[in-house]
Amino acid sequence: MSTQEPTGENLPVGDGPLGDAGRGASSETPASGRSLPVAPASAGSLPVERLVAAGQGFSQPQYTDNFYETVGGHATFMKLVDAFYAGVADDDVLRPMYPEQDLGPAKERLLLFLEQYWGGPKTYGEQRGHPRLRMRHMPFRVGPQARDRWLHHMRAAVDTLDLAPLHEATLWDYLDRAAHSMVNAAD
Ligand code: HEM
Q1: Is 109 a pocket residue for ligand 1 (Cβ < 6 Å)?
Q2: Over the range 29-52, which residues count as b (16 or more CB within 10 Å of their CB) and which as e?
Q3: With a threshold of 0.85, does the pTM exceed it?
Q4: Whose CB has fewer CB within 10 Å in the chain, the N or C terminal residue?
């Protein structure tokens, strides 16, 4: 397992889950699990000898490399999308963008996507195929204002989770960059 920072391959742009066809073969996401940035923050700064010494009788630290499980699994992601869509429902910029009267199906799609992305069930892929999220957002005009409204509601939703700082930063960093990568209009 690596403790390295996520690289471009794990970002939602390019070859990641939002990547469009033809930009590379990899569809790896944190869901594939091997290099999640959830190792202990201190590990990188400790000399090897101390890590080895600490390994004597070393009990398993309080993390796994599956971010989905680490942050609480389905209940956590459900809470996230519930809070997010409660914000969207009252937003006069975002709400009109959602084609369906009922936000429930859109909420379900975001839930399944995020669960899969972070290492949970792969239901999104089974139902929807490759995410290609940038492409799927093309029918919608996503300008800076919509992006910032999206991020505003997502920030509030993330705050309801009370995650450990490292996990919160990991999740937020992804969402922030994903939202920026989704912009497809100048206004
Ligand atoms: C930047 C601002 C964004 C806006 C304004 C926006 C808006 C929308 C809209 C209007 C839809 C169609 C609703 C539906 O599912 O029927 C949609 C779908 C979706 N969005 Fe976004 N979105 C944004 C960013 C993101 C980001 C950052 C992610 C992922 C991290 C995301 C994930 C999804 C997913 C998974 C779907 C359903 C795709 C499918 O059809 O399978 N969106 N979005």
Answers
A1: yes
A2: bbbebebbbbbeeeeeeeeeeeee
A3: no
A4: C
